[in-house]
Specification:
With 149 residues, the chain is α+β, with helices and mostly antiparallel strands. Helix content is 45%, strand content 26%. The chain has 5 helices and 3 strands; from the N terminus they run H-H-H-E-E-E-H-H.
Length: 149
């Protein structure tokens, strides 16, 4: 099912990737690749909060609030970029909105290779490291007999 969503809406994938990126990483990758183009703010970076909800089956419930930073901008060529970033990271929100807008231009394939793919690779590596650390603490309770004789 996830592959179907990605094919229909790839923007959802790159927006999620940037929203979960470590602090400063999107900006660093973007600045290493290109000089930032001119843009106009539609909504300057602002801090707020959102309710985090959980519940895949049954009734959803509120876990609590999370701080987010959001912004929207438009490039001089007309493309609009949005971002919602976890935490209080105005610079990261700006960089993510720029990448979002630039992904709608002819620079999309270049940014996919130099910004998005490295972010994805780093996320996979971090997830594998967390899984390995958790696996090291696994306890195996296998026994031959239960001692009930």
């Amino acid at each position: 099912m996830k592959d179907t969503v990605s094919e229909i809406n790839p923007r959802k994938d790159w927006m999620g990737l940037m929203a979960k990126a470590p602090q400063g990483r999107v900006a660093a990758l973007l600045d290493a690749e290109i000089s930032r183009p001119a843009f106009t703010w539609l909504r300057a970076p602002e801090l707020g909060s959102t309710m985090v909800r959980a519940g895949a089956t049954g009734a959803a419930f509120n876990l609590g609030e999370m701080t987010i930073t959001r912004c929207a901008l438009t490039l001089d060529t007309g493309e609009v970029g949005h971002s919602y970033i976890q935490g209080r990271q105005k610079a990261d929100a700006e960089a993510a909105a720029l990448v979002d807008a630039l992904m709608q231009t002819e620079m999309a394939s270049r940014l996919r290779e130099t910004v998005l793919k490295p972010l994805q690779a780093e996320m996979v590596t971090a997830k594998a490291a967390r899984a390995a650390k958790a696996a090291a603490t696994k306890v195996d309770f296998f026994t031959m007999t239960r001692g009930e004789d």
